[in-house]
Write a structure and sequence with these properties.
Elements: H1 4-49, H2 53-82, H3 91-101, H4 106-118, H5 126-140, H6 155-158, H7 161-174, H8 176-187
Length: 217
């Protein structure tokens, strides 16, 4: 059967997994918010600025770079750490975070980990130290460490995305050409666009034939 210390360790490991899940949720909210905001920003800038090729290319690639960076740093890396790739927080660091939420056991938790790391099977006081580790662990293994992280706290971060969505909706209803023209000009940043003239010539007569040398009214 599982010893008290093993149960304690599995709880700390569950906390570490939840720590990274929480980071991924935060990262997703940040990514969606920045993606929508930067998209709105660059197409509006281009729609009203009507920039040349170089500026459009800069806007387009800056937009991609910013969003790829956020995707990597705040979603992909925590996801890899959740799956145990790369360096993740160790049990000591996790215990420090848990200790902030459960201050009563903060020192005891760290001390128990330190004691366990110092245990040597060949030592004369191995049994005594092991008994102490198991006894300390059993008093803490009923505490729900994962409660130190509340995933629903992330709702408050989602609220700053709402104004961006609202502005995007209003543009979609009242100025849809900002999306169509702005996006088209950015995607085709190499293409030169000729601005339509602010006037046009229109003939008021239907008579399209004329004698050579005659005036045309």
């Amino acid at each position: 059967s599982m010893s008290s210390f093993d149960r304690l360790i599995s709880q700390i490991d569950a906390f570490i997994r939840k720590f990274y899940k929480n980071q991924i949720i935060k990262g997703l909210i940040l990514f969606v918010g920045v993606l929508l905001f930067t998209y709105l920003f660059v197409i509006t800038l281009e729609f009203f600025g009507k920039f040349g090729s170089n500026v459009r290319a800069t806007l387009f690639f800056s937009f991609i770079a910013v969003n790829v960076f956020i995707l990597g740093k705040y979603i992909v890396i925590p996801a890899l750490k959740l799956k145990s790739f790369g360096s993740r927080i160790d049990r000591y660091q996790a215990s420090t975070i848990i200790g902030r939420f459960f201050p009563k056991i903060s020192d005891r938790l760290l001390n128990t980990l330190q004691l366990s790391d110092r245990m040597d099977v060949n030592s004369t006081d191995y049994e005594l130290i092991n008994a102490s580790v198991q006894q300390r662990s059993s008093t803490m293994s009923t505490i729900p460490f994962t409660n130190a992280i509340d995933l629903s706290d992330n709702k408050r971060y989602a609220f700053w995305v709402i104004p961006v969505v609202l502005v995007m909706f209003l543009f979609g209803v009242f100025r849809p050409e900002v999306y169509t023209q702005g996006t088209d000009r950015l995607l085709n940043y190499n293409q030169e666009y000729i601005e339509p003239a602010p006037f046009e010539f229109s003939l008021l007569t239907n008579d399209n034939t004329i004698e050579e040398g005659e005036d045309y009214k």
